[in-house]
Design brief:
The complex is a heterodimer of chains A (581) and B (219). Helix content of chain A is 23%, strand content 19%. In chain A, helix 1 packs parallel to helix 13, helix 5 crosses helix 13 and helix 6 packs across helix 12. By secondary structure, chain B is mainly α. Helix content of chain B is 37%, strand content 5%. Chain B has a two-stranded antiparallel sheet with strand order 1-2. Classes of the chains: A alpha/beta (581), B mainly alpha (219).
Chain lengths: 581, 219
């Protein structure tokens, strides 16, 4: 196998986490840094003509080619796993920028309690209230540890929003339930489209505390601390599943790639499919990858950072036999444990009398309430919280046409067509993002049957909902329907409820776990700095480190953790390489 | 080599398109005499007529406005099936195939082309049947994979960008008040609350000022 010249730092994956890390190290050190990206290169002008629903939102031009690699899925360890043959519940991006190119840009921080969820729930309700098969962990990183890095991430992206807690001072109009922040959002909130304005007014009338969704789509022209300038959002509605043609939505290609392009100590190789991390004698030596010409090569490096998204981080470590695979029977092993998604559901589909003009908007232009994030669960039959929100993301006609109130029985023909035409622009959705606890039998391992295009085993997901999530979603659905009624909906179709995990219904590309962080190596794969317990020069970045999903979308937290790791690398590790915890 | 097939569309259905106004008044302009021949890439002419008639029962032309025939839905479907999509380029197709649960998604071995081939057998000479019989037949096959796909494709063909062959003259977009891709709603997004904002639809090609290559031309 061809052996390439060594580099100082090798980063696997050119998405948010890999490229932010590359930017920090390339600008703060003289080290030679290489990023290997499995997908193709990207230029900003690629997005000038991508406003096409079929090619981007349905044929999924920005996603990984599922014919080459997918996952298999089943509900319990007793079931037969089958491949996800066409994308459904999540959409992994590919190419430079990764999923950070096609995301919506909703940029939540997590709540202080989320980082110590096990302690928090045990203190408040007693261990006996926890689901018997839970696998909850405290993070070993606190909100206070992460707050400076949240702030840095928000300023880098130019996140728009309104603070609800500035250094302990509660501010109406922001999310009054959030943890204290050191500074106001870098840019003011997005404009409020009609549906989001109705939601805001209705929520207020019910005594809730609505706030504008925090948006990594900057609301006005903004120059970040790195000197990168971007235009404000124009609300064209082509965000989620698209790249932003004017660069208002923060994407790696318009925030960090321009800085990296100027650095001589940085190289990005695209179309580089990493198959193995090579660890020998407790040290990462480099990676084996298939290059653009299809040749398998060995790339040596002193420091290896894995940043290839939740599922591929886990799969690469499993394929490379680094760490002990998790066994749900015995509870032994850590690699692949704590698989979570997010309780994401269209809680109430609401039909209105007036037109909504839903083609206008942005993937992150909306209103949310945090009133159900921190409930008193003493009298409730579930634990955990949810955000209830509406977002005006640019309604797409090919995928969304045909939704009609339950009273219209037909699904085709004249009656259906007439109702569907009438309601097309009069249908709004109140959604929820709820906390997804980790459970002992929700995990990942390698599939024994199905393989990728190189012959490597696919990742197998074993995942299902428990009573806790089902009850939570039922509770939140009732609350969402109440808001829809207060908004003046003439008809409401409530969410039918969570039964089993459904790989066909899109629920957000927010998968967590597999390489979780923690305070000791018996329970976690990486330490609080995302350093692998078994190889001090191997780090694993991204939401694969999250022990469970705390309701919100993971990107901001994942990138904040990456900034924190970058600081500890520059300030401590590079001076004295070795275990950091 | 496949014999060349054309779908013959009467000019009155094509020529009358743009006259459906935004309030859906069917004020049809007198079309020029004659017929327009659209080259087919996948279907034979008889197959195209059968699919077109079935799509027109799913999304009929009626007093609520034009339907699948006027939008050229069958042209959209024909091009999709002829393209990489029809050969299952967008799916993981490695064996073994096995029956899964409903939450595991479509696990079949059949490609979209094969699903249509089987569907065409079920439809037979669908376009020669009287409308009540057509509806009866579709009711019988409502639960099939083919019908679900045909229904999805019919909606897609109604509302796709016209570069994909359907939504002829943006008739579908006009029906629902969708303006197509536009660069900015900065001045409208927080206005028009509760009021229709209905700019005249434009296609992607009109917006960017040059031809855009659709995915069905790629492979």
């Amino acid at each position: 196998m061809k052996r390439l010249p060594a580099v100082d730092v090798l980063i696997v994956g050119g998405g948010w986490n890999g490229l932010v890390m590359a930017k920090e190290l390339a600008t703060r050190t003289a080290l030679k840094i290489l990023v290997l990206e499995r997908g193709g290169p990207r230029r900003l002008r690629d997005y000038a003509d991508n406003m096409d629903e079929l090619d981007y939102a349905i044929r999924l031009r920005m996603m990984q080619a599922i014919r080459d690699e997918t996952v298999t899925i089943r509900h319990t360890p007793r079931d037969r796993a089958l491949p996800v043959r066409q994308y459904g519940s999540f959409l992994p991006g590919t190419g430079v920028g990764g999923s950070g190119e096609h995301w919506s840009g909703i940029a939540y921080r997590y709540y202080p309690k989320d980082f110590r969820v096990l302690s928090h729930l045990t203190e408040k309700y007693g261990a006996s209230r926890l689901p018997p098969d839970h696998a909850l962990h405290d993070w070993s990183v606190t909100y206070e540890d992460l707050e400076p890095y949240y702030d840095r991430t928000e300023r880098m992206m130019g996140v728009s929003g309104k603070a609800g807690n500035l250094g302990g001072q509660i501010i109406e109009g922001g999310n009054i339930f959030e943890g204290p922040r050191r500074a106001e959002y870098p840019t003011p909130p997005m404009k409020t489209p009609y549906l989001a304005a109705q939601f805001r007014d209705a929520a207020r009338s019910l005594g809730y505390h609505p706030f504008p969704l925090p948006a990594a789509t900057t609301s006005v022209a903004y120059t970040n601390p790195d000197g990168i300038s971007r235009a404000g959002c124009s609300f064209c509605g082509y965000c989620e599943r698209y790249g932003c043609m004017i660069g208002a939505k923060a994407q790696p290609t318009n925030t960090v790639v321009p800085l990296l392009a100027r650095r001589k100590n940085f190289e990005l190789r695209s179309n580089a499919w990493v198959r193995r991390i090579v660890v020998e004698g407790g040290r990462a030596r480099g990676v084996r990858y298939v290059d653009q010409e299809g040749e398998e090569v060995f790339q040596p490096a002193d420091l290896v950072l894995l940043a290839s998204w939740t599922l591929n981080n886990t799969r690469l470590l499993l394929l490379s036999k680094i760490g002990q695979p998790y066994d749900p029977e015995t509870g032994k092993g850590t690699l692949g444990s704590n698989l979570t998604h997010q309780v994401s559901a269209p809680a109430a589909t609401a039909f209105f009398e007036k037109p909504l003009n839903r083609f206008m908007g942005a993937g992150s232009a909306g209103t949310a309430i945090g009133d159900f994030e921190s409930l008193n669960h003493s009298q409730l039959d579930f634990l955990g919280g949810a955000s209830i929100y509406t977002v005006c993301y640019g309604f797409r006609p090919m995928a969304n046409f045909g939704v009609v109130p339950a009273g219209v029985g037909a699904r085709w023909g004249s009656d259906w067509k007439k109702a569907a035409l009438h309601y097309y622009d009069r249908t709004g959705r109140i959604s929820l993002y709820g906390e997804h606890f980790a459970y002992r039998a929700n995990y990942m391992d390698l599939d024994p049957v199905y393989r990728d295009r190189h012959g490597d085993p696919l990742l197998r997901l074993t995942i299902d909902w428990r009573e806790n999530e089902r009850r939570m979603s039922a509770y939140m659905t009732a609350k969402a329907a109440g808001i829809a009624r207060a908004m003046g909906a003439v008809e409401i179709t409530p969410f039918a409820g969570l039964k089993h995990y459904d790989a066909t219904r899109y629920q957000g590309t927010h998968i967590q776990g597999g390489t979780i962080l923690g305070a000791n190596y018996t329970q976690s794969v990486v330490n609080m700095y995302l350093q692998h317990w078994r190889a001090a020069n191997l780090f694993v970045l991204g939401a694969s480190a999250f022990p469970q999903n705390p309701s919100g979308n993971p990107t901001l937290t994942a990138v904040a953790l990456t900034y924190r790791t970058a600081d500890v690398l520059v300030e401590r590790y590079l001076k004295h390489p070795g275990a950091l915890a | 080599m496949r014999r060349r097939h054309f779908l013959t569309v009467s000019a009155s259905s094509i020529g009358g398109l743009l006259v459906y106004t935004l309030d859906r008044t069917p004020g049809r302009v007198q079309a020029q005499a004659g017929a327009i021949k659209v080259p087919l890439r996948f279907f034979t002419e008889d197959e195209a007529l059968a699919i077109a008639s079935a799509a027109a029962r799913i999304f009929p032309t009626d007093d609520s406005g034009p339907g699948a025939n006027e939008a050229g839905v069958v042209i959209y479907i024909d091009r999709q099936l002829a393209s990489a999509y029809g050969r299952d380029h967008y799916r993981y197709t490695q064996a073994p195939f096995a029956e899964g649960g409903p939450e595991q998604g479509y696990q079949g071995r059949e490609t979209p082309r094969e699903i249509y081939r089987a569907g065409l057998k079920m439809l037979g000479a669908f376009h020669t049947l009287a409308i009540p019989e057509q509806d009866r037949l579709l009711k019988q096959i409502e639960a099939t994979v083919f019908f679900a796909l045909l229904r999805t494709h019919t909606i897609e063909g109604m509302f796709c960008d016209p570069m994909h062959g359907g939504n002829l003259d943006m008739i579908g977009w006009q029906l629902i008040g969708f303006p197509g891709p536009r660069m900015s709603y900065l001045d409208q997004v927080d206005q028009y609350h509760g009021l229709e904002f209905r700019p005249k639809p434009q296609s992607l090609q009109q917006i960017v000022g040059r031809k855009v290559r659709p995915s069905e031309e790629d492979l």
